[in-house]
Amino acid sequence: MTALLTVENVEKRFGGGRSLFGGAKRAVHAVQGVDIAVNKGETLGIVGESGCGKSTLARMLVGLDRPSARSIRIEGIDPSDFERGNTRVLAKKIQYVFQDPVSSLNPRKTIRTILETPMIHLLGLDKPAREARLEELMQAVKLSPEFLDRYPHEFSGGQAQRIGIARALAAGPELIILDEPVSALDVSVQAQVLNLLADLQQRFDLTYVFISHDLSVVESVSDRVAVMYFGRIVEHAEARELFRQPRHPYTKLLFDAAPVPGKRSVRGEAEPAELPDPYAPPPGCAFAPRCPNVRDRCRSERPTLAADQPSPTHAAACFFPVEA
Ligand SMILES: Nc1ncnc2c1ncn2[C@@H]1O[C@H](COP(=O)(O)OP(=O)(O)OP(=O)(O)O)[C@@H](O)[C@H]1O
């Protein structure tokens, strides 16, 4: 398998530095020491609770946020374009679909203008080529070409998200970061958008990074899944393997807390608890205060991601993982 995107030891701190009077300002450690490789044509799911750093990581992958310490490489892109945040080069290769479809579209622009903008600025297409591409895009996202001269507020959430997806496709990217793409939609519309994304992946040979807090959605779309907690990846594995046999106690807790039709909730034990102070990450495992398997070592030493012996592709950052 060829990695299209490789992320090594990426970090993002917000704040820090020196105040006007010379004192050290505290920094939020939003993402710490993240390594990811995304293979061509696959969907990597990233799952975790609110505030764990999913969106910050995603924004760094498309160059919307600059990493504090970095190594992000995309096949076919000169690393210096990444260093300089050369959005024009990056945007041709990698695009972003936002969670809130309506507010992510400029309310004063027609759909035609929204979709034509990347064609002009990134691809330099002339009018006839743009017309042909507009038709192709609208047909791909299953919207009538009549919608092209309307404004974003005239659309339902599901339709607006189809337009957001068409905008992401306009420049012909290879990789799309989908940041909670169906969370704001009605359940009945979610499945339609997920099916559309699967069709488009086949048709345009796309690679996806799919970010969500919703386990059932992540399970249904992902080839591999990375679980994030407090800015770090704490477990990753092939999707089927992870959902069959979670190894990190946090992953297990997420699974136990997920609502399953007909199953009585066990939320009592999995109620979201306070995350550690993001200004002062603990020396040991960040999950230790919530962990049912916690021992002394976990509070002083931070476990690194290590692949399990029986399954070299399944890694959990835990000294005392959940037994098979
Ligand atoms: N611009 C910022 N300035 C300061 N702190 C920030 C900023 N953006 C994010 N953070 C902090 O970084 C951490 C990770 O936030 P992030 O939005 O990436 O998490 P998330 O998992 O995507 O959550 P959500 O699903 O709620 O968006 C949080 O502690 C958040 O408060």
From TrEMBL:
- The superkingdom listed in its UniProt entry is Bacteria
PANTHER family documented for this protein: D,D-DIPEPTIDE TRANSPORT ATP-BINDING PROTEIN DDPF-RELATED, TRANSPORT ATP-BINDING PROTEIN
For this UniProt record, give its keywords in alphabetical order, as a comma-separated list: ATP-binding, Nucleotide-binding, Transport
Which InterPro entries did the record assign? AAA+_ATPase, ABC_transp_ATP-bind, ABC_transporter-like_ATP-bd, ABC_transporter-like_CS, Oligopep_ABC_C, P-loop_NTPase
Q: Which residues form the ABC transporter domain?
A: 5-255
A molecular function (GO) held by this record is: ATP binding
What's one Pfam family here? oligo_HPY
Q: Does the keyword Kinase apply?
A: no
Give the PROSITE patterns listed for this entry: ABC_TRANSPORTER_1 (PS00211), ABC_TRANSPORTER_2 (PS50893)
Q: Which SUPFAM superfamilies match?
A: P-loop containing nucleoside triphosphate hydrolases (SSF52540)
The keyword ATP-binding appears for this protein: yes
One Gene Ontology term of the biological-process aspect is: transmembrane transport
Q: What is its main location?
A: membrane
**How does the record classify its membrane topology?**
Peripheral membrane protein
Provide the family line: Belongs to the ABC transporter superfamily.
An example of a Gene Ontology cellular component annotation for this protein is: plasma membrane
Tell me where in or outside the cell this protein is found.
Answer: Cell inner membrane
Q: What is this protein called?
A: Peptide/nickel transport system ATP-binding protein
Gene source species: Bauldia litoralis
